[in-house]
């Protein structure tokens, strides 16, 4: 029920365009996945996401496990039935939040005990439990439970962690009961090329429906992130989708598409929207700027989203300054639309054999435009 | 450019159905006007309001004067051009907020000096200034500047205030420059029947395009409010629209339609939505209730709004408990849709000569259903 078809390979970069099929619909790659942490992409409705061109959204297993919980999700049948999103959903494993958000108690070979960041209650996740929760969520693409290590971590720690993450991935694959969900393995290995290679080799030997690149954008230099992403993508099979987790800026996404990544997710477009930062084809700017009070311009002259079709920067600034809830939604609609048009235009460029020029021109405009718009 | 046509009179009550024409479109009465305090109905877009059946929204002169200010509104041409609402807008005079929200400095025969509730800056409003601001806003229906007295107030104070409010209304009418805006006078007089009559007589002698009933729902008993509304409506000419300001619950609106009121506004549906209280044809309930976690029911079995078409009470409860911004919008869409269907169904019932039965049955269901749903 899940498949990935590689449709186009760019001749000048590693960029590729493909098509993922899932029980809830197809996804054209490269794709950006808006993050619906607790079963809703913040400030946006399913209709807003459809109108913005979203093809798949992400749900966070950790958050959904805490609230509403698996009993509620089982009652409703799936997250998609619960939140009325009728296209594919991908869930992470819960690992990243357990290691970054919760208070950790203990990491053992079996799993991780931690405290809920909501009420401090003691909880436990391991590979089998993560799969069980994701099966209750009913997402189309699920992730293996992985250890998310801090940056920087020393070589020996990362080596042990990679091997454990592989053992966890294998246990998750064995625990998986449903055959209508695709399972991805997550490549770890920090910034050590041989450990990334080791992780990729171990996971591909087990065999997964796709491969995620985890543990990046956690504090390392951007150039390091690109370097690690680049060689890790090369270690992965060409006939499976590659998903760079939690990345990133428009520049990051454009660059990593060129390194052979197919899938991205990040809270940046929605979080920045709520903070008043808007992305455009000429870079980003703050809608709070005083000089925008009288601006008749739309947010992005090249955008056709609901926000850009109907509202000026002046009005959006007013809404934001007045603390109107509508500001958060209109900003989010625009930023998500921008991210989705970026990957859609990348796909067109790959298909038409002009991705490198598109990438260079877009990166140039973003660099030149930032803070001058 | 403004007209009011009385189309149907109910035989068993004072209820009436009419049609208001304005430069930005027609309004079928009785009508409820969602409140767009600072140029946006809280949590809702113009598209949401259109989909909910809104025919006219209200803007608050006080809030718009403070932010974005008349210079911005003049730059954009009007509030409608600024906020992309392409149907009629009504503005209040600013009086209510000056007297209830701001720190008052001094009330004189000329006007009122007060401090901004936003930044404490010293400001001044009088009848001429209120009209000037409303002309910058460019609303289709504007209000005379009135004194909003506290409840209770003694007879002599109210008497003097009524006469001053009349003088202010006359000054506003003289100051008005635009002929594409309808000007309403506001009947005051507290809970004193002869003062309500005096105010209505004075204002109708001057002559306005419509008449508002102000100074109700300010702390008096509901039965008193209905009594005062009832006799005040009788003091007003039949061929002009009557607007009961700031009222109220669904029960209030149904009752006051029966007393001959044509227009209503209230923050209740949107404010309650943000507090998690949802209105239905069987009364209201809190979406926070623990027993709703597993509820497959929609909010109101008789509602066809976006929220009710797509989401269960269980999901809405989850969104609210998780602090999701989407909860505020979905709740607001429903409550506004409910209020608008209430006045639309009242209008149908008036047209078809069955308003009294409709009113009684609806009030019965609301009373029986409250907190049992």
Explain this structure to me?
The first copy, chain A, has 373 residues and is an alpha/beta fold. Helix content of chain A is 43%, strand content 19%. Chain A has 15 helices and 17 strands. Chain A has helices spanning 46-52, 61-66, 70-76, 79-83, 95-100, 127-137, 155-175, 193-206, 222-234, 250-257, 268-274, 306-310, 313-321, 325-351, 355-369, and strands at 3-9, 16-22, 25-29, 31-33, 35-36, 57-59, 89-91, 103-107, 112-115, 122-125, 141-143, 182-187, 210-213, 242-244, 263-265, 277-280, 283-286. In chain A, the strands form 5 sheets. The first copy, chain A, has a 6-stranded parallel beta sheet with strand order 4-15-14-13-12-11. In chain A, β8 and β9 (112-115) form a beta hairpin. In chain A, α7 (155-175) runs parallel beside α8, α11 (268-274) packs antiparallel against α14 (325-351) and α14 runs antiparallel to α15. The first copy, chain A, is globular. The termini of chain A are far apart. Chain A binds chain B through residues 38-40, 42-47, 67-68, 72, 75-76, 82-84, 293-294, 296, 306, 310-312, 314-315, 318-319, 321-322, 324-326, 328-330, and chain B through 38-40, 42-47, 67-68, 72, 75-76, 82-84, 293-294, 296, 306, 310-312, 314-315, 318-319, 321-322, 324-326, 328-330.
